[in-house]
Design a protein that fits this description.
Rossmann fold; six-stranded mixed sheet; two-stranded antiparallel ribbon; about 10% strand
């Protein structure tokens, strides 16, 4: 029996590597990744370049360093062009701040233009498949926002997702798209994302809806990983083994800033199904990025007050904010028995369900479905003006595509690629038989 075909991919706007990690776990093969942040790239490089099956092949002509997609296309366009026909998939989550419903939805945000660079890369490589992942607001029409004509010209009454889909259709791709909640694929987090999954038409007359194939694969995907199909993974099922109560606090060993503590990690006798999955590849490892915040006594008391006022799983209401004495409207206390809300780049958006503190980077990473062996690198946080420029660990995790969702995407595309290969072989054998009959 012929071994299943592999799928080679390029990850653009890769961040710390969540999308790539999931694809590699699905047995896809990474060629290279592009990420402009040196901090996020440091994490990707540490985990996904010299790590056996979890490693990019990385061409010799491309420096193993942070760069923009524009740098890649401007400096290495000839080399990238030689990959045409050798790469099956380009994936990427172009920066989404200009589309996010949590932000100002600025059509003229320069980060929105990075999608154009993504399309230029597609034009050079011409992959069979394309996956674009973004926030739910990517598919919302711009109404009265100023500057929309700078982004979309005379197509300004469309959503940007529709604009991109039409551009891809012009390039010869069949486009399927929709919203998916990451919690449906085992991620312990209600995270609504917009996915666009595309396949090059070539001469095919009938093509499947790849987004619907992904949705239909859900039950099989969860069963294979030992996860419940009727009940989403809860916050407590994800992070209960990382609670700090009754544990010794010791100096944090992976923090450049002095004076921080972490709780010793003691694996419980019985892990939850999700925790077992996160530790399966390296069951003896002690996960990094467990640095605890240095909350002042008044901050701890504030979090206790918030925990007493807040309905777990819901943002503080206006009345609750008044009672807590805060204007911050995005604070949510985890509900222990439900998935977490969307993990963001701001550490103080989520409060622990039973301990008066924010979550550690590792706890956020668990809620994003990063396995425990995946070690985040560089500084933990940043502030002030640097917040727009740097990508520390909390930001790396908040911006990432959950690896479990990416793994599900990878399995669907691998199945489609193998189906195409089998179909082409049958067609080829059929033509060969017809020619031989003609000769005789």
């Amino acid at each position: 029996m012929k071994p299943p075909q592999t799928l080679r991919f390029i990850d653009a706007f890769a961040g710390c590597g969540g999308l790539s990690l999931g694809l590699m776990t699905a047995r896809c093969k990474g060629v290279f990744a592009i990420e402009k942040s040196p901090l996020a790239f440091a994490t990707l490089k540490h985990n996904l370049t010299k790590n056996g099956d979890y490693s990019f092949a990385w061409p010799k002509w491309l420096p193993l360093q942070a760069m923009t997609c524009e740098d890649l296309i401007t400096t290495y366009s000839n080399d990238v062009g030689t990959l045409s026909g050798q790469v099956d998939l380009i994936v990427g989550g172009p920066p989404c701040q200009g589309f996010s419903t949590a932000g100002k939805r600025n059509p003229a945000d320069p980060r929105n233009k990075m999608t154009e660079q993504y399309l230029a890369l597609v034009g050079l490589v011409k992959p069979r498949f394309i996956v674009i992942e973004n926030v739910a607001g990517f598919n919302m029409k711009f109404e009265n926002e100023q500057g929309v004509e700078l982004l979309m010209g005379d197509k300004k009454k469309q959503s940007y997702a529709e604009y991109i889909a039409n551009r891809l259709r012009e390039k010869g791709y069949e486009v399927s798209a929709g919203l998916v909640n990451c919690a449906d694929f085992g991620v312990p987090q209600n995270r609504q994302r917009f996915l666009m999954i595309c396949e090059r038409k070539d001469e095919q007359k009938k093509m499947p809806d790849l987004f619907n194939m992904l949705k239909s694969s859900r039950k099989t995907f969860l069963k294979k990983r030992g996860l419940d199909i009727d009940k989403p993974v809860s916050a407590r099922e994800a992070i209960s083994d990382l609670e700090i109560s009754h544990k010794e606090l010791v100096p944090c060993i992976d923090s450049a800033a002095p004076g921080f503590k972490e709780a010793t990690y003691i694996q419980p006798t019985k892990l939850t199904k999700f925790q077992s999955l996160m530790r399966k590849a390296a069951p003896d490892i002690i996960p990094n990025s467990r640095r605890l915040p240095r909350h002042k006594p008044e901050t701890i008391e504030y979090f206790r007050l918030v925990q007493s006022l807040c309905r777990p799983g819901f943002c503080l209401s206006l009345e609750e904010r008044k009672k807590a004495g805060t204007r911050k409207h995005s604070t949510t206390v985890l509900h222990p028995d439900l998935p977490a809300p969307t993990v963001t780049t701001l550490p103080d958006d989520i409060v622990h369900y039973s301990e008066p503190r924010i979550l550690t980077v590792r706890e956020n990473a668990r809620l994003q479905s990063f396995p425990d062996w995946f070690a985040f690198q560089e500084k933990y946080t940043t502030g002030g003006k640097q917040r727009k420029l740097e990508c520390p660990r909390y930001t790396q995790v908040g911006n990432a595509v959950p690896p479990l969702l990416s793994e599900a995407i990878g399995e669907v595309l691998l199945a489609r690629l193998n189906s195409l290969t089998e179909s082409n072989e049958k067609s080829s054998n059929g033509n060969k038989s017809s020619r031989q009959e003609g000769i005789t």
